[in-house]
Amino acid sequence: MWTVCVPGWGAMMVAGTLLLYGTLDVAYFARMMYTVAKARYFRKKICILDTTEVQSWCLLTDIDTLLYHMNNARYLRELDFARADYYERSGLYANIKAAGGSVLQAATTIRYRRYLKPFTKFTITSKAIFWDEKTFFMEHEFIGPGGFVHAVALCRQRIIDTSVAAIAELLLQLHCSGSCKSPPEKMPSELELWVQSNELSSAKLRPTAPALPSLEPHPLSCGEIIPKVE
């Protein structure tokens, strides 16, 4: 019978490693630190109106139990790295922190168009599509081989204890100097409808929620639906 002798320190290292990987998503935090460091020191700074790109792969750790496409939850995980790259390169996060503020993810919606197969390389694009005093909206696309958009996500970040509109204006003056396109003055129609949906959901979950407004078509120029209170 074979006997394996493991020194005490070796057994402690093995046990510590198993405990670490069992209680902490080591790969996530390691990749996040790499993404932030790369964006901060090695990638070009951008205007907040620019579209950023990050590259990634669908690996075996990303697939679902059917073993032939990326798990739906992994798309949202990948967005963390795309947003970190955008926030770092645009200077948005640093200025929010300098102003005493913080960022919270308030809502996300994603539409899957075609699955990503294992060992497929894809690109995530990120761009700002609207902001106000307390909210910053971004759109992300998962682009696979041939330029096909596999998924589209909308994200709503809530900015706490500072004005993101004032910070965005400052960044536009510092980094763009009028050379960029004009900042968005109005919500895109699909974003406006999504925000309305979020507000209806919030109203329903409040303990003393009033009667929910019903939605009916209204002939507005952008084709949105407005709430009507009975």
From TrEMBL:
<keyword id="KW-1133">Transmembrane helix</keyword>
<dbReference type="InterPro" id="IPR029069">
    <property type="entry name" value="HotDog_dom_sf"/>
</dbReference>
<protein>
    <recommendedName>
        <fullName>Protein THEM6</fullName>
    </recommendedName>
</protein>
<dbReference type="Pfam" id="PF13279">
    <property type="entry name" value="4HBT_2"/>
</dbReference>
<dbReference type="InterPro" id="IPR051490">
    <property type="entry name" value="THEM6_lcsJ_thioesterase"/>
</dbReference>
<keyword id="KW-0472">Membrane</keyword>
<feature type="transmembrane region" description="Helical">
    <location>
        <begin position="6"/>
        <end position="30"/>
    </location>
</feature>
<keyword id="KW-0812">Transmembrane</keyword>
<comment type="similarity">
    <text>Belongs to the THEM6 family.</text>
</comment>
